[in-house]
Amino acid sequence: MGERKGTNKYYPPDFDPAKHGSLNGYHKTHALRERARKLSQGILIIRFEMPYNIWCDGCKNHIGMGVRYNAEKKKVGNYFTTPIYRFRMKCHLCVNYIEMQTDPAACDYVIVSGASRKEERWDMADNEQILTTEREEKEKLETDAMFKLDHGGKDKEKLIKALPSLLELQDHQAGWKDDFQLNSALRRKFRTEKKLMVEKEEKDDAVRARTNLSIPLLPERKEDQRLAALLSLQTPESCEDRQRGKRQEISSRSWFNTTPGGTTTTTSTTSGSLLQKLGLQGKEVAIAKALGSSRTPLIRRKSHSQELTPSTSSQENVNIEQDTSASSLGSLVPSYSDSDSDHGH
Questions:
Q1: Angle, nearest 10°, between helix axes 310-328 and 267-294?
Q2: Alpha carbons 174 and 3: distance in angstroms, whole number
Q3: Which 8-state DSSP code applies to residue 290?
Q4: Which of 103, 112, 215, 337 has the fewest Cβ atoms surrounding its Cβ within 10 A?
Q5: Which helix (H) or strand (E) holds 77?
Q6: Residue of 292, 296, 303 lying closest to 342 (CA atoms)
Q7: Neighbours of 295 (CB within 10 A)
């Protein structure tokens, strides 16, 4: 990096390539700059990526796989000829330091301190998964006939144990094996539904064009049709509902009326007394009409311009007596004053 940055840069007059070698040697700086500030202690600053999910011991937070840190890398040992490196980094959520190192024997990373691993490993044999053949086992199968025979016997035992489950899976798949029939039935159903959808869409387009709407229409329901019919007739309820309500009112109404004294009287007596009152009122009206037709119930008042004679005054007294007798009988014929009209005659 230093050589790249030194390209086409300023070279001082006392720069000697044989003595200094490069601009980094002239300025007495390392090519890695700040990353090599602890290189004298055998520590190099690198960019480390978390190999798996862990839990920080300082803040108890979860740190996911793939999170990157600036870690101090140093060599702590060897596994045969493979070096073992240790990485020390600071948690980005707290002040806790996490240390991890490589494990060449298991091709994995081991947590030394500062965190705990989120355990997501399992044994493939315990989980009844297909095991990958190891290199040593593969060499034995190719070279040792007895080991191959023994291995084949174990495989047959596994097959016998798993045979019922395999047969059940095969029977289940056999019901869906005829792809042509299933595809034909599915396409037939789709064509029928598509035809109905096209018809419905045409009807909806006609309704939208007639009512000048641009909103999607929902499918019709019986309740909507009934409500639309009631709205078109401008009535809050249908004829069936009214008849049903009348029947319920009649069936729930009591046949007897309770008097204040506690005794009950039938509706027939009440209706009889009502008819009797109506009959008496009718008789009174008839008498009043008969009297009004034979005698005139009009009252003539005395005017200022005309004096009354004794004969006319006696006649008015008779008329007043007739009117009072008719009113006592409950006559409905009113009395009018036509004193103004007499001046016209």
A1: 170
A2: 70
A3: H
A4: 215
A5: strand 68-79
A6: 303
A7: 14
pLDDT digits 0-9 by tens, 140-158 = 888 888 888 887 887 788 8
Helix/strand/coil for 41: helix
Residue 229: both structure tokens together: 């019919």
Q: What is the pLDDT of residue 175?
A: 72
46 three-class SS:
strand
In a 3-state reduction of DSSP, which class is residue 241?
Answer: helix
**Phi and psi at residue 214, to the nearest 5°:** -130, 25
Tokens 């009950």, located at residue: 264
State residue 273's pLDDT score.
60
Tell me if residue 256 falls in helix, strand or coil: strand
CA distance 286 to 293: 11
Distances (CA, A) of 186 to 162, 193, 270, 281, 314: 34, 11, 76, 85, 113
Q: What is the pLDDT of residues 78-115, one digit of tens each?
A: 999 999 999 999 999 999 999 999 999 988 999 999 99
The span from the CA of 233 to the CA of 224, in Å, is 14
Which of 71, 72, 74, 70 lies closest to 42, judged by CA? Answer: 74
Q: Is the pLDDT of residue 181 over 50?
A: yes
How many C-beta neighbours within 10 Å does residue 319 have? 17
CB 70 within 8 A of CB 45: yes
Q: Name the one residue in this structure whose structure tokens are 């990373």.
A: 109
Q: Predicted confidence band at 71 (pLDDT cuts at 50, 70, 90)? A: very high
Cα 263 off chain centre by: 62
User: What are the residue ranges of helices labelled H in the chain?
Assistant: 2-6, 17-20, 23-27, 135-143, 145-174, 179-211, 222-233, 239-252, 267-294, 310-328, 339-344
What is residue 309's predicted lDDT score, i.e. its pLDDT?
Answer: 46
